[in-house]
Amino acid sequence: MTATDIHRTIDAVWRMESPRLIAGLARIVRDVGVAEELAQDALVTALEQWPTTGVPRNPGAWLMTTAKHRAIDQMRRHALHRRKEDELTREIEDQLEQSVGDLDAMLDNPVGDDLLSLIFTACHPVLSTEARVALTLRLLGGLTTTEIARAFLVPEPTVAQRIVRAKRTLSDAQVPFEVPRGDELGIRLASVLEVVYLIFNEGYAATSGGDWMRPQLCEEALRMGRVLAGLAPAEPEVHGLVALMEIQASRTAARQGPHGEPILLNDQNRAHWDQLLIRRGLAALQRAEALGGSERPYTLQAAIAACHARARAPGETDWPRIAALYDTLARCMPSPVVALNRAVAHAQAFGPDVGLALVDALRDEPLLRQYHLLPSVRGELLGKLGRHGEARVEFERAASLARNLRERELLLQRAAASANR
Known about the structure:
Pfam families: DUF6596, Sigma70_r2, Sigma70_r4_2. With about 425 residues, the protein is mainly alpha-helical. The chain has a domain at about 1-110. The chain has helices at about 5-30, 30-55, 60-80, 80-95, 100-120, 130-140, 145-150, 155-170, 185-205, 215-230, 235-250, 275-290, 295-310, 320-330, 335-350, 350-360, 375-385, 390-400, 405-420. The longest helix is centred in the first third of the chain and has 27 residues, at about 5-30.
C-alpha cells in the first residue's frame, strides 16, 4: 500500500470512527473540547506511524488506545481531576491490558450511550443554532472547518470561532455529558432533530451561493439521522425525520440538470429517483407511525413526501391526501411557511383560485415579506389562472429576493416566459 493509499485510508477511518472516538473520550474526561483534542492527537500519531507500520487490523481500536494513553499523560501532566486521577488511570490501564478482541467489545458496549450523549451535548440549546450546526458537523460529521465554511458560504475564521466558542460555552456552563431524562429528553431531542434537519435542508436546497444543492451536507445529515435512529429506536420522530430525509434524498439525481440548473418536482425524470432510498424511507415512515407518530411534524412531512414518492407520474399524485396532511401539520406545527405549503397543496387539490386566496391571506405576514417563495408561489398560481402579466411581476420580485444564484436564474426565466404569453 502506497503512502497516498494509507493517507486515504486514514481519512476514511477518521470519517467513520471520529464520532465514536470523541464520544468515548468525552465520557472519560467529561469535556468535549478536550476529547476532540485527544482524538486529533491520535490522528496525528496515525499519520506519523501508519505509513511505516501499516494500517492496523482494527484502526478504530488503535486510535482509541492511543488517545486513552494521551488522556493518561494529560491527566498526569496537568493534574486534571486530581482526586480521581488514580481511579481513572487504573480503570483505563486495566482496559488497555485487554486483548484486541476485548477492546472491540469495550468500544461496542458503551458506544451507544456515549455517541448519543455526544449528539445531545453538541446540540445543546445553550448554544446558538449556528454554533450547534458547526459543532455537530465537526464532531459527528467529521468535517473540517474548511469544509463547513465552504458548505455554508461563511468565512473559515468565523466557523473556527463558532466551534471554539461552542466548546468553551459547554465547558463553562458545565453541560453534563449524558443523555437527558424525563421531560428534558423531549425538549433536547427537538433541538437535535432541528439541527440535523437544518443541515439536510441546506444541502438539499442551498439558501445562497452558486450551487443549487450541496449533496455532502445531505449525506452527513442522513448518516447522523440513521445513527440517531439506531440509538433511540423508540422515538417516533427520529424515524419520521429519517423517513423524510431518505425520501427527499431519493430525488437528488433528478433535481439538477447537466449544468447544475434546478429541475422542479413536476419536471423531474422519476426514473432517476433512487428506489432504495424510497423503500428505506417508507420503512422508516411505517416505524414512526407504528410508534404513534402519525400526527407529529416530521412524520407528517414524511407522509407528504411519501405521496410524491408513490406517484409514478405527476398526474398520479394524491393531492387531496397531501392537502389533508398539511391541514393536520398546520394544526400541530403552525407557521407561515407551513401555511404557504398548505396553500400550494390546496391549489393542486382544489384549484388555483382556492390556493391563491390562501396565499393572498399570507401577504401581510411579517415573516414572509422577504421570503422569495411567497411571490414565486403567487406567480405560479396567477399563471395558471391566465393572469400572466401579474405572474411576471411576482416572479421578478421573487428573483430579487432569492439569495441562491441558480434559483434566481430559474425565477427570471419563468418571468420571461410569463411575459411572452
